[in-house]
Every structure is written in structure tokens, then in C-alpha cells.
Amino acid sequence: MDTKQILTFDLPDKVLTSLPTGAVKDTVEQLGKSIVQGVYETDAVLPREEELVEKLNVSRTVVREAVKVLCGKGLVRTARRYGSRVCPFESWNLLDPDVIRWHDPNSPRTARIYAEATDMRIIFEPEAAALAAKNASREQRDLIVAAAKGIDPKHGDAAMIGADYTFHATILQASGNLMLSQLQNIVYAVILFSYSAGRFAAPEEKVVQRLHVGVAEAIDNGEADLARKRMHDMLKANQAMAREFAAIAK
Amino acid sequence: MDTKQILTFDLPDKVLTSLPTGAVKDTVEQLGKSIVQGVYETDAVLPREEELVEKLNVSRTVVREAVKVLCGKGLVRTARRYGSRVCPFESWNLLDPDVIRWHDPNSPRTARIYAEATDMRIIFEPEAAALAAKNASREQRDLIVAAAKGIDPKHGDAAMIGADYTFHATILQASGNLMLSQLQNIVYAVILFSYSAGRFAAPEEKVVQRLHVGVAEAIDNGEADLARKRMHDMLKANQAMAREFAAIAK
DNA sequence: TTTTCAATATTTGTCGGACAATTACTGAAT
DNA sequence: ATTCAGTAATTGTCCGACAAATATTGAAAA
User: CA A176 to CA A182: how far, in whole Å?
Assistant: First the structure.
């Protein structure tokens, strides 16, 4: 693999939503986002099926199938004569790719989720890095190294985010654990959050790249303990910067 | 709280399934289990909607709503003229409570999932224990201690499983991180798997109880580092025993 | 006035049928 | 053997009707 050629990385066009394109998918997206972003508060009743039919210009069939999908993700609960109500926050499937994605990075309401997601990353990603150092394929090691080098401001924000995500997602995949691998949705959400509204530490971008390359090289060399430590230190530093930024923003 | 009174713990009757009781829920359960347990292999087409209508004795409306829910969990994918096909394993939402629960503990096919779930537990439960030592409320600390003491063979299998689950679930809740808390579904599945078919190490039950009590006391005393270490050692020991058992079974 | 209880209204749940849209499949023509 | 148009099969969407459950209401009773 020619790493010289791989300098930019696209964002995943479809981080996931298994529903096929169509009216149901659009309706799920719209209702899901509205709920997650707080348009309807906890225990609030959604508009009646009939009203949603008018508002969204779809048939009742579509509305019902969409609401059922949201039930399956723990967002709403329905009953006869009771309406469809928003479930309390704790019962949402926060690890569902869609539910994660629907959070609005710019809403102060979701700040808690991102803080907790960051804590999750600090727990899982160091171990994933250690596993990747042991289990990654040749191609995965190359990709991890190339992505780390691609985290460079000179490529623009989009390419930087893409490289950042590719780096972390590939490490999770290379761990060989499917559940661990699925946490890349959390990583993706946190990265988007970090970069949106200029939350990333602009002046220190070179430091960020250097830290990523350090982790990548440890993985590439199969040094599990070193990879674990470097990933941990990097995420901790990142968390500290984010907290500092949040404090200033207030 | 009188810990003397809390000696037995019930299993959670409803570990979760947000769908309300009714034909749709039953259909989701049946189809979901069939897929997860391997009745339909990857890329296999499900019976046509019309056939499912006959087989399950429900209307097409119900079948469609159920299939849509399964789409939302990444299990199936539908298209016109294409049928509803089982998605490849990697795209399943393995962290979804229902998807976890639908795995059959007695199927050799799902052994991999339980092995990976066990690896996951070793990663996040020690950290959860450390967080719980810092953040747990008085009631949670009492409950954790009581549950640990309740892991006693003299109460029978069901009560033992209940205490075991209560112990781990309460620790995750006490961590204060909602995402971490939702991983209790993984713990529940692994515990059921461990106990089913006599996989647990019967002669050493007292050791198991002692180890749990050790973790509980560390949490109760607010000793985060000690709690982390003890939880880690306990899970590692448990994993080693499980592997030994699996090797013998072959 | 408060409580109880039956009647009512409202909302989702389920059913059935019809047609649209997409695409895998078939068979003829090249 | 290949291409291509036609056909058939399957899910997608719409509609209308009624069933089931329950929140609400109002009257009767204490």
C-alpha cells in the first residue's frame, strides 16, 4: 500500500441507518431527531398519528412503522388512548448508532452525553489499541499509520475529521472484537462534537497529529502496552482540553 | 436499609423490550430470535410477508411493522422485489438489549459473542467499579454489599443469578455514566450463559462469593483503585475458569 | 362537597384490500 | 454468448374500517 497516496480520508457517507431509503426512513429520522434534540420533552405526547400524517405528508402506515422503529430504540412508548410518549432519557438506547447520531452537537442539552461518551472512549480505546497491536492485519496497521499522518490542518477540516475518524475506527475494528468495533459510532459522534463550533484546539493541531502518530507506531510495532498507554494519555489530554474549553465558553 | 432482609434477589422480569405488549411485539420477538439464533443464515431471504402472515397468524400490517423494527436493529434489510434478507453479522446492533437477549445460550453458534462479551466486561467493569467507589449513593453501596453476600448457593440457582446480576448492574448504575449503565444487558447475557448448562464452577461457589464481597467492600469504602483491581482479578479468574470448562467440554 | 361508578370519547392496534415502484428473472432477438 | 425488452414478483405506500383499551367526563350517591 502506498501511504503517500493516502493523505485524505472521506467521512463515512453512511455511518449507519439500516432503514432503506424511503418515506419510513425519512419519518424515522425526523421524529428521532426531534425527540433526541428535545423538541418533545420527557413524557410529552407526540402529535397524534393523524396530525403527523398531515404534518409529514405521509400515510398513517408510514407514521406507524416509523414510531415502531423508535419504540425499538427505546425513545417512545405507545398505548391505546394514551398516545405516543417520549420515554425518560435513561431508557433510550444510547449505544444505538442512530440515537447517537441524532444528538445535536450544538445543543447544550446534549453536553452531558458527549462528556459521558468521552469517558467511555477513555475506558475502551486504550484497550482497543492494545488489542490492535496484537491482532491488526498488515493492511490495518498501514491504514492506522497513514490516517494518523493524515490528521493535518493543511488538508482542511473535513479531511482532518475523516482521518481522525478513520484512525480510531480502524483501531476498534482491528481489535477483533465486534462489540468493541461498534463503539466507533460513539467515537464518530464525539469527533463531530469536538470539531463543530471550533471546539478543537486550533493552535495545537501539530501536537494532535504527533500524539496520533505515536499511538499508530506503537500499534504498528506490536507494542501493546505502549499503545495502550499512549492512547490513554492522548485521550486524557484531549479531555482536559475540552473541559478547559467548556469552562472558558461559560 | 436492613441488609439482613435482602438475601435473595429476583431476576429482572423485563430486562427490556420497549415494544408494548401486542401482536407486533410477539412478532418482533419471534422473528428476531429466529434470525439471531441462526434459523435464517446471512443473506438468506425471510419468508415473504404474505407467508409470514399465514405462519404467524397476524396481518401484513403487523408483519411489516415488526420487520421495520428489526431493520432498525440492523438485523435485516429490505428492498422491493428483493425480499427481506438477513444482514451480515457485523452490521447487527450487538449492543442492543433485544439483540443481546435473543442470543441462545445453548447454541454453539453464539459462543463467539459470549467470549467477546466477556472480554468487554473485563474492560469496562473494573472502571465502573472504580467510578462506583467514588460516585455511589449510600443506598447503592448497601445494595452492592448485600447482593455480593447474596451470591450463595444455599439460596438456589435463581436467587444466586439474581444476586449476581444485581451486584454488577448496581455497580454500573452507580458509575453515574448512562452509557456504561446500559451495558448491564451484556452482563446479564453473560451471566445467563455462564449459569446455563452448568457452566459455572459449582465446587468453588464460596470463592465466587468471597471475591464479590471483596469488590463490594472496596466500593463501600470508597477505595477506587482497590475496587478496580479486585473487579479485574475476579473477572479474569472467571474467564480463565470458563475457558478451562470450554476446553474440557470439547 | 367528595367519592364512586358508569357512559363516553379518544387514541392506538389490527385487519384487509388496492395500487405503485423497483428490480430480479425470463425469453427472444441479435 | 450477449443484449435487451418484457414480465413477474416483492416490498412500499396509500386508504378505510373496526377493535381494544383507557383517559375523561358527568351523573349518581355518600
Answer: 11
A180 shares contact with chain B (CB less than 8 Å): yes
Q: State, as a whole number of angstroms, the distance between the CA of A80 and the C1' of C9.
A: 13
Spatial contact of A96 and A134, defined as CB atoms under 8 Å apart: no
pLDDT in tens, B131-147: 999 999 999 999 999 99
Return the residue of B nearest to A87 by Cα: B18
Q: Which residue among A44, A75, A97 closes a domain? A: A97
Spatial neighbors of A28 by CB under 8 A, at least 6 apart, are A17, A19, A66, A69, A70, A98, B72
A239-250 pLDDT tens trace = 988 787 777 765
CA dist A12 and A29 (Å) reads 18
Name the minimum distance, in Å, from the CA of B64 to any CA of chain A: 8
Tell whether A98 is within 8 A of chain B (Cβ). yes
Please check whether residue A2 lies inside any domain of the structure.
no
pTM of the model: 0.92
CA A81 to C1' D29 (Å) is: 29
Contacts of A25 in chain B (CB under 8 A): none
Q: Residues near chain D (nucleic strand), Cβ < 7 A?
A: A 20, 22-24, 53, 57-62, 65, 79-82; B 45-46, 48-50, 61, 64, 67, 78-84
Residues A37, A113, single domain; the answer is no
Domain CATH number, residue B179: 1.20.120.530
Specify the pLDDT at position B218.
Answer: 98
- Structural domain count of chain B: 2
What integer pLDDT is reported at residue B105 of this predicted model? 85
Residues A48 and A150 placed together within one structural domain of the fold: no
User: How far is the C-alpha of B64 from the C-alpha of A147, rounded, in Å?
Assistant: 42
